[in-house]
Amino acid sequence: MVDAIARSRGAKTVVDVGSGQGYLAQALSFEYQLAVIAIDASSHHASVTNTRAERIKKHYAAKCVEKQQFKVPRTVTCHVLSSDTLAAVVLDACQDNHGEHVTESNNCNQSSPQIGQPNHSIPQLVLAGLHACGDLSVNMLRVFVSCEQVQALVSVGCCYNLLSEDCHEDTDTSPGFPISNAAKSSKLVLGKSIRDLACQSAERWRSLTKEMALQNFDIHAFRAAFQMVLEKYFPELSRLSPSIGRQGKALRRQRLRKEMESHLAMGKADDLSYPNSKEQNMNTDGSLPTEPIAPKGAVQCCSNELCTGDTYSTSAVVGSSISRVNVGPSDTNHDECCKFTLFKDFTISGLGRLGCGCVEDVNLLEIWKDVQHFTEFIGPFWCLRAALGPLVETYVLLDRLLFLQEQGSAVEASLFPLFDPAMSPRNMALVAWKLTEDPLEPSHGFVRPWA
């Protein structure tokens, strides 16, 4: 898709916005021989991209009989806080696009080529963003409209919950929603809770077994009960709508590990290595699981996949004060006790993530007894909310499409499903290109790859 659009516009340079570990950038460079500038906020991602690019380059060189020059993505590290920042970084990088994968640390405040003014030293560009999070996708749209050098755009958005919203959140920059005049006229305010729903997708439920689905329901019940813990013991923190990360995968791994440990005790898995008794105690006395939730230096991103980053270590141990939480007497039956134990692990981990200190007075069993009769309703309620996800996502995407269509006849834009939603729930691609008055220009002969 990106290659077809780039060649139809006569562009040989693609700017991969929010490039992550560089998979798209490297495919465009090595497979399609396009010059690629990969922009990402993480210097670690740039390092991974550069290292892998060298390995791929050697692989291609070994296969070629004749000497061939391979294009390697150039990486630029920068925190993109606005469309002006993105435009400045793009034009700077293209104006000085010499050498291969020179990682730059950009403070984004240096003087840049004038935005919107034609500069013959800068090539025609295509902006591409595969799952560019939050406002980053919106900034791409604004740069496409304002920069003469940017001739086309291919954007697949993500993380609508991270969008800034007009009339709802304080921000010094232009909001990420709404951006079209049509959506602004409706004066509809979504709010963070509704934007969270836009990230849900029922397509992946098809692959869940009944047991996995019920475990998901348990996780949502634990989070709801955890909110009651915050309301009762940490009311000021509760009002901040805190995020404790994705605890669900950690708990599922704990369950799996315990099952494997029971098999080991029965002598069925002697050849496998498991956590020692000290590590097991850490998992039950209030710490995070000592088995890494993801590979070292990895975090879980919005698409429920693992992506490498350097934000925090998943093997960190919660402070000893957390371990002294009051769990109450053990007078529940076996099934209830198992769920309560998981809820306790969830809560202690969550409190640790939030940096809560002394929590000896927290009575988790009392909270759990109050909510356990209602936990069976949490799953269906969550499903009903999640079913509204595609509706909210469609509204957000239509806002972006209308913004481009409001630019007049000089821009043509389309919105269509590019991927299988079971593989990638964020599968809607927004494609736009600028039309020219010259009938000999390629845009008039462009055949849509999705037609």
Q: Would you mind describing this structure in some detail?
A:
- This protein has an 8-stranded mixed beta sheet, with helices on both faces.
- The chain has 451 residues and is α/β, with parallel strands linked by helices.
- The protein has helices at residues 2-8, 23-31, 43-63, 83-95, 135-146, 181-186, 192-197, 210-233, 235-238, 248-265, 277-284, 334-353, 364-371, 375-386, 389-405, and strands at residues 13-17, 35-40, 74-77, 104-105, 125-133, 150-158, 298-300, 306-308, 411-417, 428-434.
- It folds into 2 domains: 1-105 and 119-199 and 389-434, Rossmann fold; 201-245 and 333-373, no CATH class.
- It has 15 helices and 10 strands.
- Mean pLDDT is 76; it is low at 98-115, 269-323 and 439-445.
Shape estimate: globular
Helix content: 40-55%
Distance between the termini: 12 Å
Query: Helix- and strand-based class?
Result: alpha/beta
Can you summarize the main beta sheet? 8 strands, mixed
Q: Tell how many strands the DSSP assignment holds.
A: 10
Strands of the largest sheet, in order across it? 4-3-2-1-5-6-10-9
Helix/strand order: HEHEHEHEEHEHHHHHHEEHHHHEE
Question: Do you know the CATH topology of the largest domain?
Answer: Rossmann fold
Number of helices: 15
- The share of residues in extended strands comes to 5-15%
Mean pLDDT across every amino acid position: 76
Q: How much is the radius of gyration in Å?
A: 25 Å
**Tally of distinct domains:** 2
What is the name of the CATH architecture of the largest domain?
3-Layer(aba) Sandwich
Task: Note the topology.
Blueprint lengths: L1 H7 L4 E5 L5 H9 L3 E6 L2 H21 L10 E4 L5 H13 L8 E2 L19 E9 L1 H12 L3 E9 L22 H6 L5 H6 L12 H24 L1 H4 L9 H18 L11 H8 L13 E3 L5 E3 L25 H20 L10 H8 L3 H12 L2 H17 L5 E7 L10 E7 L17
Helix pairs in contact: 4-5, 8-12, 8-14
